[in-house]
C-alpha cells in the first residue's frame, strides 16, 4: 500500500485499514470488499480467528451454532453438534476466509502500535455538528496515520500507512489481562508459587497445560466462563488428592446447554414486546407493562429449574440478582459438564470471598487466620478491554472518548466524536458473530455512501437513550457495550432501517411474531 494518496480519487479507491483478523475483522473485510473497497487487514498474529485460535482444550461455543453462523455460509453438514468445539469453529472461520478471498487482504505479523488522526484537533472535533464535520464516511481532511510494527522484526522501524478510514476489530478478550490490585507486600511478589492469567493458561497446548497443573494445589480466581472451565479442567486432572479451589466474589447464574437452546428459541418479536424500548410510544409501553408478569414468570421458572438441577442452595450458590438482570447484560455462562458432581466428590472447592491477598505460601482470604495454601493461582479475572482500545490512539482526546464515559457507541460501533473510524466487535452479545455481522453490513453500506449519519447531538442522544434502557433492565450489571439478549431484533431493525431494507424478514405474520431471528434471516443484505 502506498503511504499517501490524493483527495480527488474515486470513492471506491479510498484506503481503509482494518485492524485485527478475528471474526470481526474478517466480517468487516468481506462486507466492505463486497461494496467494492480494497481494504488492508493488519493482524498482529500469524493466523486468523483471534480468540478462537488459542483457547483451553475444553472450549466449545456457548451459542447454538445457528446463531453463531455467517449469514451466507452455513456450518458444514459434518458438524452435527449444536455447540461445536474450538477446532470446528476454527475450521469454519477458515473456510469463510477462503470462500470470500479474505486471506489475500491480510498482512500477518503486523501489529498496529498506534493510530493518529492527521488533521483534527480537539477544538475542531468539539465544534462539529456533523460526525467528522460532514456526516459522511470520507472527507479530504479525514486521514489517519496507521503505525505498524513487523512482529517478526521488532528492531526494525515501524511502517506508517496513511488511510482514509480505520475499522478497529482488535477484540475485547485478549492481550491486556485484568489483574486485581493488591497493597504493597500483599501481592503476587511475596508468593512463592506461580501466578498466571487465564490468557496464559489458554495459550498452553493440552500437554503443557496438564503438566503445569498436575498434582499441584491450584486456585482459580473468578466466576465467569474462563474460571469455570479452568477449574473444571484442573479438578478433573487432579481429582480429590489435590482439589482445585474456585475463589470468587460474586455468584452468577450459569446453566446447561439445554437451557441455552431454550432461551435462544424464544428470542422472537413477542418476547421483545415485554421490554419497553427507546422512543416507543404509549401503546407499546402499556403492552410491555401488561406483559411484564410473563417476564417475571419466565425468570422465576428458570431460576427454579436451575435450583432444581444443581445443588445451589446446599453450596450457598444462589445469586443475589435475578436471572433476567444477568442475561440483559450479556452475562450467561454454560456450566462445564459434571461441575457440581466435582464439587460433591470434593475435587472442586467453592469459596466466596470479599477480599484476599497473597502470603508466601498462598492466599489470605477475608479475615481468616489460616492461609489457603496453594502452589498456583490462575487469575480468570477478565480483560481491560477499554484500555486496550484507548491505548491504540495516539491522541489523548480520543483515548478519553473511549475511557471517559459509560455511554454506549452509536449503533454500538461509531463514537460520535471519533471521526472516520468505527469499532466492530466492541459490543458483547449472546451471539457475537450475529451482532457483529449485521454491524459490518451496516458499516459497509455507510462507507459506500448509502446513508448519512445524523447530527452528532442526535447520535449522542440516541446512544444515551439506549444506555438508559439497558441500565433500566440490567441495573447494577450494566455494561456499556452490550446488545442485550432481549433487544437483538430491535437493534437489527434499526440497522435495517438505516440501510433502507425491510426489517420484517419473515414470510408469514405468525412467524414474524413467534419465530426467532437468526443470521440466515439477514443474508443478501
Ligand atoms: C474463549 C472464548 C470463547 C468465546 N465463545 C463465545 C461464544 O460461544 N459465543 C459468543 O457469542 N461469543 C464468544 N466469545 C466472545 C468472542 O470474543 C467473540 O465471539 C469473537 O470471536 C470475537 O472476535 P473479534 O474479532 O471481535 O475479536 P478477537 O477474536 O479477539 O480478534 C481480534 C484480533 O485482532 C488482533 N489484534 C489485536 N490487537 C491488534 C493490533 N494492535 N494490531 C493488529 N492486530 C491486532 C488479534 O491478534 C486478534 O486476531 C468467546 C470469547 C472467548 C475468549
Ligand atoms: N465459549 C466458551 O467456552 C468461553 C470460554 C471462555 C471465555 N468465554 C467468553 O470470553 C469472555 C471473557 O470471559 P472471562 O471469563 O475470561 O472474563 P469475564 O467474563 O470478564 O469474567 C471475569 C471474572 O473475574 C472476576 N473478577 C474480576 N475482577 C476481579 C477481582 N478483582 N477479584 C475477584 N474477581 C474478579 C469477575 O467477577 P465479578 O462478576 O465479581 O466482577 C468475573 O467472575 C466472555 O464473554 C466469555 O463468555 C467463552
From TrEMBL:
<dbReference type="GO" id="GO:0050661">
    <property type="term" value="F:NADP binding"/>
</dbReference>
<keyword id="KW-0521">NADP</keyword>
<comment type="similarity">
    <text>Belongs to the FMO family.</text>
</comment>
<keyword id="KW-0560">Oxidoreductase</keyword>
<dbReference type="InterPro" id="IPR000960">
    <property type="entry name" value="Flavin_mOase"/>
</dbReference>
<dbReference type="InterPro" id="IPR050346">
    <property type="entry name" value="FMO-like"/>
</dbReference>
<keyword id="KW-0274">FAD</keyword>
<keyword id="KW-0285">Flavoprotein</keyword>
<dbReference type="InterPro" id="IPR036188">
    <property type="entry name" value="FAD/NAD-bd_sf"/>
</dbReference>
<dbReference type="GO" id="GO:0050660">
    <property type="term" value="F:flavin adenine dinucleotide binding"/>
</dbReference>
<keyword id="KW-0503">Monooxygenase</keyword>
<protein>
    <recommendedName>
        <fullName>Flavin-containing monooxygenase</fullName>
        <ecNumber>1.-.-.-</ecNumber>
    </recommendedName>
</protein>
<dbReference type="InterPro" id="IPR020946">
    <property type="entry name" value="Flavin_mOase-like"/>
</dbReference>
<dbReference type="Pfam" id="PF00743">
    <property type="entry name" value="FMO-like"/>
</dbReference>
<dbReference type="GO" id="GO:0004499">
    <property type="term" value="F:N,N-dimethylaniline monooxygenase activity"/>
</dbReference>
